[in-house]
Amino acid sequence: MWGIILSIILAVIIGLIGDALAGHNMPGGIIGAMVAGFVGAWLGALLLGNWGPVIGNFAVIPAIIGTALFVFLLGLASRLFRQAA
Fold this sequence. Notes:
Membrane topology: Multi-pass membrane protein
Shape: globular
Strand order of the largest sheet: 1-2
Subcellular location: Cell membrane
Main location: membrane
Distance between the termini: 44 Å
Keywords: Cell membrane, Membrane, Transmembrane, Transmembrane helix
Oligomer: single chain
GO cellular component, one term: plasma membrane
């Protein structure tokens, strides 16, 4: 039970940090931050591996970098779709 709560809290924190690094382009508020945190943790581990401090099964540094990359790409796609419409 505590593991799930810790994972959600860390996903939100990592999502907010990644959003701040990428220039605040993420929609969805806290829920968007949580989703971006989980996706970014997966993407960061996939691209960079699991190194650095690990908290709640998140390798923190790759997760933050992966989240920033995900938020940047999400903001870029959002701007492209707005221009095309």
